[in-house]
Amino acid sequence: MSRYRGPRFKKIRRLGTLPGLINKKIRIKNVFKNKFGFRKKSKYKVRLKEKQRLRFHYGLTERQLIKYFHIARKSKGPTGQILLQLLEMRLDNIIFRLGMASTIPGARQLVNHGHILVNSCKVNIPSYRCKPKDIITIRDEKKSRALIKNSLVSSPAKTFNSLSIKTKGIS
User: Which cellular compartments is it found in (predicted)?
Assistant: First the structure.
């Protein structure tokens, strides 16, 4: 309904690199910089651009981002840091960070099609908020394993200290 399905390169050119949106290397030409001159960016423009980067990187709608912001604002601690924690705990983002999918939209598709199990329960909601100690596994089907094996082989992900992946059972 409101998910952005338009050209991704336009968004990347305008907002800068978004590693979750596309896995290709892009060379952005600075053709128009000298033509129109340099203007000081207003605070509003800087904040809007950063908000749009968050939205398009994580594949969120405006309403979802506002809900996450309200949750972060209500909880104790720095709001920005808590907001990023909430966004990083989403299931589609964790699958992307583990390297099971090359992009966040690809991870969303894996979750929507039921290839992912969380604590041995089928979860088909990409915005599912994972908790620490959750075990994310691949559904025990040949098709599911082949999809994830291809993405693991093609682009090994740089996993964080808090995430670990065991590729022993994938074949």
Answer: Plastid
- CATH class of the 8-88 domain in this structure: mainly alpha
Q: What is 91-154's CATH topology?
A: 3.10.290
Which residues, at least 6 apart from 112, have a Cβ–Cβ distance to it below 8 Å?
124, 126
pTM over 0.90: no
Walk along the chain (171 residues) and give the pLDDT tens digit of each residue: 467 666 766 677 767 766 666 666 666 565 555 556 677 889 998 899 889 888 888 889 999 999 999 999 999 999 999 999 999 999 999 998 888 888 888 899 899 998 889 999 999 999 999 998 888 888 888 777 777 777 776 765 566 666 666 666 555
Every domain range in the chain assigned CATH 1.10.1050.10:
8-88
